Amino acid sequence: MNEKKPPQVRVVFEGDMQRRFEAIKDHYGMKKNADLVRLLITLKYEDLGLGPELPRFEQINSDNDGVKIHDRELHRVVDVFFKPQGIKCGYDQTDDCVHVDFALSLPGVKELVRKRRKEGWKLPDA
Fold first, then answer.
1. 29, 59, 80, 113: which could join 126 in a potential S-S bond, CB 3.0 to 4.6 Å?
2. pLDDT of residue 10
3. pLDDT tens figures, 56-89
4. pLDDT one-digit tens code per residue, 12-46
5. pLDDT number for residue 1
6. Rounded CA gap, 44 and 63, in Å?
7. Shared domain check, 106 and 77
8. Helix/strand/coil (H/E/C) assignment for every residue in the chain
9. Is 100 among the domain residues?
10. What is the pTM of this model?
11. Could you give the CA distance from residue 123 to residue 43 in angstroms, rounded to a whole number?
C-alpha cells in the first residue's frame, strides 16, 4: 500500500533574516530551529485569533536536562531544570510553582523523574 506522506515545509534563511532568526532563538534559549518555528507559528496563530482559546501552558520540548514550557499568560518560554540536587523553575527560581507542577504532570517527564529518582536524584514524586 502506498501511503501519502503529509506535506513538509522547508525554509532557508540568509543574511539579515538569518541573523534575526538566530537572535530570536537565542532570546528564547532554544537550541533547535524547529522548536522556534513551532513557537513562532503558535504565537502568530493565537495573535490572529485563528483557533480556539488554548490552555495557559504548552510543552515546547523536553530532554534529560528539563522542559521548555510556553506560558501564554506571561508571554514567554519558561525553563524547568532537572538536576541531581532537585528541580527548579528558571522563571520563578523555585521548586514549587505552577511551571514545576505542569512539568511534573507530563507523562514523559513523570517517566524521566522516576528513573532519575532511582539513580539518587533528589526530585519530587511525579
1. 113
2. 85
3. 999 998 888 999 999 999 989 999 999 999 999 9
4. 889 999 999 999 999 888 888 988 998 898 888 88
5. 54
6. 26
7. yes
8. CCCCCCCCCCCCCCHHHHHHHHHHHHHHCCCCHHHHHHHHHHHHHHHCCCCCCCCCEEEEEEECCEEEEEECCCCEEEEEEEECCEEEECCCCCCCCHHHHHHHHCHHHHHHHHHHHHCCCCCCCC
9. yes
10. 0.68
11. 32
Largest CA distance in the chain: 53
Is position 3 within any domain?
Answer: no
Same domain, 71 and 125: yes
Q: Is residue 4 part of a domain?
A: no
Cell of 40: 513562532
Same domain for 79 and 112?
A: yes
Binned at pLDDT 50, 70 and 90, residue 2 comes out as low
What are phi and psi for residue 57, nearest 5 degrees? -110, 145
Judge contact between 110 and 104, C-beta under 8 A: yes
Q: Does residue 93 lie within any of the structural domains? A: yes
